[in-house]
Amino acid sequence: MKIRWKALIIALAIPLGVGALAGLASRGGMAAFAALQKPPLTPPGWVFPVVWTALYIAMGIASYLIATSGAQRESIRMALGAYGVSLAFNALWPVFFFALGLPLLAFIDLIMLWLMLRYTLLQYSLVRRTAAHWLFPTLLWTTFAGYLNLGIWLLNR
Asked: Out of 38, 67, 121, 126, which could bridge 42 as a Cys pair, Cβ 3.0 to 4.6 Å?
């Protein structure tokens, strides 16, 4: 399969752009985050941007595989539409958690993100199973992020 470079660059730029916006939204809240009580298994702060960057790249690759799959246009539209909604929930989380200091609302957003990722995985599987494999680690990390978010809310209310 020949790589369509323009499509790949766009597919990577979209989630990385969301990640950059998330980084900007969370930058101001990092000092407050450091002062919070955290649940067991909370990784050091530097892990989050590294993991999310890798996940955003994987999301971009997955969306590229869907966009260039050659599947029916409607199937591609459904899969990428679900992905777009999941990116919106992803972008809202740092606003709720860091910028607004609302960890319960952030947790609810993570539940919605998790549900949208499950739906996106289903849609991706119907179009191109390999794309779903690229997206699956995001579901796993979002599950872990939900545990951390809920733990922080419970420990600091």
From this structure: 38
